[in-house]
Amino acid sequence: MAREQLNSDAYNWHAFAERQDLAAALAGHVAGRLTAAIDERGTALLAVSGGTTPAKFFASLSSIPIAWNKVTVTLVDERCVPVSSPRSNAGLVAANLLQHAAAAARFVPLYQEAESVGNTSEADSRMLRSLPWPLDVVVLGMGTDGHTASFFPDADNLETLLDPSSERVVLPVHATSAGEPRLTLSLARIVRAGFVALHIEGEDKRTAFESAMASETRKPIRAVLDAAEKPVQVFWAP
Ligand SMILES: O=C(O)[C@H](O)[C@@H](O)[C@H](O)[C@H](O)COP(=O)(O)O
């Protein structure tokens, strides 16, 4: 059960005593929203983040028996590495989410072996444009630096990444703090989702989130909350 609920205009805060409780609750919310989308338009589009946080959530969601054959899963962002790399978000999703009932979902990755990240993002824009936009559900993570997706504060094209009026679907990211070149959905695509969840765990990230909400310096996570068409649902556990 949620331990506390702190709301504001831009977000609703759902806190859980245990990370497993959060995983089960978030999976239930996401499964419900995907089913509603399928009932409404015959299909559902889900974008998930990678990193070290989502594994429990992915495992919980993968076992929920919804009409996964009508769900398309893609990534919020990706490291430009082969799917066999331990750094690959596509590899993480394949191993943790696209299992059990969810194995029936269609998966559309972001990264393709290409000679340059710039070419990859052009190709991905063409490939991903054919998906059934807008996103029905997007699940974001966050770093303690206030980045979300691959909107890293030191990205060389941050203004472009955070442009809410961008027509782009996927953008390349070069940021020293990112570890390797990245591809990310544009903020414009993320904030139009029917349900935007932010999944964060640990005291450091709660402090970072609260600091980003209070700070005069606009961190990327704040740019997303400010532009989101509906309040972002923040799921947090210690
Ligand atoms: O590719 C990625 O790394 C993610 O999409 C990124 O935005 C992630 O959500 C945060 O960096 C938090 O990562 P952790 O879950 O590892 O803390």
From TrEMBL:
Instruction: Tell me the enzyme class.
Output: hydrolase
What does the record give as the reaction this protein catalyses?
A: 6-phospho-D-glucono-1,5-lactone + H2O = 6-phospho-D-gluconate + H(+)
Biological process terms from the Gene Ontology for this record are: carbohydrate metabolic process; pentose-phosphate shunt
Q: What are the residue boundaries of the Glucosamine/galactosamine-6-phosphate isomerase domain, all occurrences included?
A: 18-228
Quote the EC number: 3.1.1.31
- UniProt keyword annotations, A-Z: Hydrolase
Under the heading InterPro entries, the entry gives: 6-phosphogluconolactonase_DevB, 6PGL, Glc/Gal-6P_isomerase, NagB/RpiA_transferase-like
Q: Which GO terms describe its molecular function?
A: 6-phosphogluconolactonase activity
Give yes or no: UniProt keyword Hydrolase: yes
Q: Which pathway or pathways does this protein act in?
A: Carbohydrate degradation; pentose phosphate pathway; D-ribulose 5-phosphate from D-glucose 6-phosphate (oxidative stage): step 2/3
As for what it does, the entry says: Hydrolysis of 6-phosphogluconolactone to 6-phosphogluconate.
Q: What family does this chain come from, according to its entry?
A: Belongs to the glucosamine/galactosamine-6-phosphate isomerase family. 6-phosphogluconolactonase subfamily.
Report what the protein is called: 6-phosphogluconolactonase
Query: Which gene codes for it?
Result: pgl
